[in-house]
Amino acid sequence: MAKSKSKSQQKSKAKAPSAAGAAGGSDVLARIADAIERLAPQRAPVPDLAGADAFIWQPDGRRLAPVKHVNRVEMSLLKGIDRVRDVLVENTERFAKGLPANNALLWGARGMGKSSLVKAAHAGVNATLARQTKSAPLKLIEIHREDIQSLPDLMALIRGSQYRFIVFCDDLSFDTEDTTYKSLKALLEGGIEGRPDNAIFYATSNRRHLMSRDMMENERSTAINPGEAVEEKVSLSDRFGLWLGFHRCSQDEYLAMVESYVAHYKIPARGETLQHDALEWSTTRGSRSGRVAWQFVQDLAGRLGVKMKD
Questions:
Q1: Residue range 49-246 in CATH 3.40.50.300
Q2: 126: closest CA among 140, 142, 115, 143?
Q3: pLDDT of res. 235
């Protein structure tokens, strides 16, 4: 009996360390799993798209920050761009209705209302949808130039959403040694996934081909086959189905812009004095554009003590 008892005690003592080892091993595995989970990239929260019609893409947090009040100008106040206005609005309406539409590049003279037209078209099409249909409103997402390389993350976030999106980049251009344009090329057309059916890309730029002239000339001078090097650069703008050119306005168009702003904001200024002051303002700025007209009207309203409220 004594011998059997001692043998059973020995067996129990032998089993105890293995149980403790198993418990310790499970703790180690749990700690490893927790560490891996902390290192793994966090899933982007599903954005609340119903709360606003406009958002700003923030790639660091992979989130869409809602914009409650969009800084925009009414469509009726945009003068001298009637043709491009009609083309862009029609393209946007088709897209909002689920019909085929093109990516658009608005290029040309600075201060002529390129970005203002994009925001006004978005608001105008949404107003039309509200009157005519019960479809979900069109959403506007602004992505900054320096965040272009995060476009695939943004597209993955909105792909499959019930809403339709205008992804908008203002003042898009690329300089020497900047290769992010290649990811944009693949996204617009040519990549495996491409852009989602519920997204369209609008961009504004002072450059028609989005590349500086010295950048393209440098490619031509250093490449083994200069033609192919330049073609690669130019092919980016080819990904946009719509090229909408904005050109410097005439004196009459500039004065029409000024008078339109003055009438809209009920500023007590009319006649030859208004025109003389507006032309003098444009001379000191060295250009005539919608932006210069707006800056003059702001100065005029301030001098006359008029608050400009929509």
A1: yes
A2: 140
A3: 66
* C-alpha distance from residue 35 to each of 25, 44, 58, 179 (Å): 15, 19, 26, 35
Residue 19 parent element (H or E) = helix 2-39
Alpha-carbon gap, residue 213 to 265, rounded angstroms: 41
Q: Which two tokens stand for residue 23?
A: 């418990």
Does residue 200 sit in helix, strand or coil? strand
How far, in Å, CA of 310 to CA of 307, rounded?
10
Distance CA 284, CA 288 (A): 10
Q: What are phi and psi of 168, to 5 degrees?
A: -120, 130
Q: Where are the alpha helices (DSSP H) in 142-225?
A: 151-158, 181-188, 213-222
Q: CB of 162 within 8 A of CB of 146?
A: no
Which residues, at least 6 apart from 184, have a Cβ–Cβ distance to it below 8 Å? 148, 151, 236, 239
Q: What is the pLDDT of residue 86?
A: 96
Token pair of 16 as six digits: 């105890």
Determine the Cα angle at 263 with ends 245 and 292, to 5°. 40
> Higher-confidence residue: 240 or 300?
300
More confident residue, 85 or 172: 85
In terms of DSSP H, where are the helices of 57-113?
82-96
Domain range list for the chain: 49-246, 251-304
Find where tokens 């890309």 sit: 201
Contact 175, 215 (CB under 8 A): yes
Encode pLDDT of 279-295 as tens digits. Answer: 999 999 999 999 999 99
- How many of the other CB atoms lie within 10 Å of CB of 8? 10
CA distances in angstroms from 248 to 10, 116, 169, 251, listed in the order given: 98, 16, 22, 10
For residue 266, is it left (φ>0), alpha (ψ between -120 and 50) or beta?
Answer: left
pLDDT at site 225 = 46
Q: How far apart are CA 187 and CA 162, in angstroms?
A: 21
Q: Is 198 in contact with 158 (CB distance < 8 Å)?
A: yes
